[in-house]
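Please decode residue identities from the backbone states below.
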């Protein structure tokens, strides 16, 4: 059964032991084995938004609920990110900077969709 306090503690331990995404990704993958338990613990979404769960200088955990069709502009997380999908689907377009472009423009460099069926904790790198 998913327990939010234990999840945060496990993520904290993972970051303390290895300040990269690798151990946190394992924690998220374990949590996503039972996505319905995560949904029960966090509650059925009623609207889109971002709900902070935990924040420190080296770890931020946010529950993000996207309404179907929502999009955001290409952005740089400025850090690693592990994203777990416990319901619905997330579609991504990956971007990269155009080599030697003096205006700093970007171009699409791939795409991938994620849903709870593919059970994921994925790592997003920066540009």
């Amino acid at each position: 059964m998913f327990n939010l306090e234990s999840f945060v503690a496990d993520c904290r331990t993972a970051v303390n032991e290895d300040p990269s995404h690798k151990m946190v990704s394992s924690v998220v993958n374990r949590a996503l084995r039972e996505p319905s338990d995560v949904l029960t613990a966090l509650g059925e979404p009623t609207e889109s938004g971002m709900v902070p769960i935990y924040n420190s200088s080296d770890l931020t955990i946010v529950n993000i609920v996207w309404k179907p069709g929502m999009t955001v502009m290409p952005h740089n997380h400025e850090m690693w990110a592990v994203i777990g999908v416990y319901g619905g689907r997330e579609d991504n377009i990956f971007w990269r900077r155009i080599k030697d472009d003096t205006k700093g423009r970007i171009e699409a460099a791939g795409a991938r969709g994620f849903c709870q069926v593919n059970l994921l904790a994925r790592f997003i790198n920066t540009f």
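Observation: The radius of gyration is 16 Å.
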